[in-house]
Structure formats: C-alpha cells, structure tokens
Amino acid sequence: SGEPKEELLALALEAARRAGDLLRDGRPADLGVAATKTSPIDVVTEMDIASEKLITGFLAEHRPEDGFLGEEGASSEGTSGIRWVIDPIDGTVNYLYGLPSWAVSIAAQKDGETIVGVVAAPVRGETSHAVLGGGAFLNGAPVRVRPAPPLSQALVGTGFGYVAERRAAQAAVLGSVLPQVRDIRRGGSAAIDLCDVACGRLDAYYERGLNPWDYAAGELIAREAGALTGGRPGDPVSPDLTVAASPAVFEALQPLLEDLGAWHD
Ligand code: IPD
Questions:
Q1: 201, CA 20 to 30 Å: which among 44, 76, 194, 249?
Q2: What global pTM score does this model have?
Q3: Choice from 189, 202, 238, 241 to test ligand 1 binding pocket (greatest atom count within 8 A of CB)
C-alpha cells in the first residue's frame, strides 16, 4: 500500500509524544517491578506495559492493517507491508531508578527495511527522528556525526545484556577495548546511545545482544546522520552485534571487535 513516509513519521512522533508524556507525568513514586524476563535483573514495570498499550492502540487506530513487534509482547504480521517496531521504555532500569536517560523508541519498517525512526527522551526534552534518505534531526534541527578522531581519542558507548554469562563475555571484550579508546560510557538506553552518536555526543556505540526494538529507530537515525552502522563483519546490524560510529572510527573499531570475537558469549 502506498503510505507516504511523512504520514508514518507524523504518527510515530505523535505516539511517542503521548507515551512519553504518560511515562514522565504518570511515573508512580513507588514504581516497582511487575515481572522479570531473561534474568532477575531484566525487569518490566507496569509503565512499560501501559506505554506499549498506548502506542499500539494509537497506531492501530490510524493504521489497522499494519503489523507490530513490541518489547512487551505485541506481535502481528499485518497485511500492509508496514510493521511497527516498538520499545515502550528503552532504558527501563534508568526509568525504574528515576534516572533521566530513558526513551520511547518507534520504528516503521517496510518489508523489513526501517524507513522511519523516532526516539523520544522526555526527561531530556529531546526527540530525535529520521526518515530513510532524509537526514536525521534532534528537536527538528538537522544533526551530523562528530568528525572522527583516531580510535585512541574516541568516546565509545556500550551496554550489557541481562544474563550473567553474556555479561561476563561483554566485560572481557570491554576490558580490551577500554585501554584503546578515550573512554567508555554506559548510558543505559541503546536507543539514546545511537542518537548520541547521531548528534556527535559519542564517537561510537557498540553492543552485543540487543533486540530489534532497542536499535531499529536509533540505527536509522545514526545512519542518516552520517554514521556507518553494521554488525558482524560484512553484515548489517543484528542482535549478534550492533555497531554505529563516525566512519573512520567505525573502520577502526569494527576490526577490533572482530578480533575480540565481540559477538560470542
Ligand atoms: C536495554 C537498554 C540498555 C542495553 C540493554 C537493553 P531495555 O533495553 O537499551 O542500554 O544495554 O541491552 O536491553 O530493557 O531497557 O528496553
């Protein structure tokens, strides 16, 4: 079906705004953990569930033929060729603790390719977006990646999964990366980390084990801002490995991650 990307973008922005308002203004003072997933530290709150319900309800009302993939369980194929990939709170642990870096991440994919990405971080007062081929924006202003420094001067973001064995493997890789770069940041929201690459606040970001809802929107935003993005050598971003960086940093970091076997547990 012929849906203008601009219509999808407008819907994604509005859904993210509504969910962001709900999450920021409606966060219970005594917010607790509603359930755990892959491990005892992989948590879901009532607000993750409420946010996903709001977003899927709003989008389905406007586009009943579309499919959905959401972190909290939304999963349907749809018949239009468009699928929405949704993280209702990326950075759930930050949200649980009242730290500011959490986001609502919404991507629209057409036949599997991301064509629209929106990442709204309400406490930071920032919404990033991109449309395939149309550049990347932060609060409506165009953004570009930072001019690449040598890897030894690069500020690199990363993150960790929730399962102990994988975390140990990620820590070992990080132990080899850290002495070769300026410094490391662990922001707690992959979506925001990717937007921080897009607007030049990080030179690079990498992580093993993300899910599509964590990276779909942010990867497009980083790429549209001039980042190179990829996964295992020669592959696109995938749950095995997500890398996004200013081009020259990418060219140095990806071989290092390959040498270190960063996609193995
Ligand atoms: C998590 C965040 C975190 C990353 C984890 C993700 P969630 O997403 O993006 O930065 O390191 O791997 O699972 O669970 O808060 O939606």
A1: 44
A2: 0.97
A3: 189
Residues in a beta bridge with 110: 82, 113
3 lines ligand 1 (CB under 6 A): no
Residue 189 Cβ < 6 Å to ligand 1: yes
Give distance in angstroms: CA of 4 to centre of ligand 1.
Answer: 31
Contact of 145 with 258, CB cutoff 8 Å: no
Answer whether 224 contacts ligand 1 (Cβ < 6 A): no
Calculate how far, in angstroms, residue 37's C-alpha sits from the geometric centre of ligand 1: 12
CA-nearest of 219, 154, 229, 212 to 192 is 219
Mean pLDDT, the chain cut into blocks of 10 residues (265 residues total):
83 98 95 88 91 98 97 92 98 97 98 97 98 98 97 98 95 98 98 98 98 98 98 91 97 96 92
Q: How many angstroms separate the CA atoms of 185 and 156, rounded?
A: 6
Domain residue limits, the chain: 5-142, 151-259
CATH number, span 151-259 = 3.40.190.80
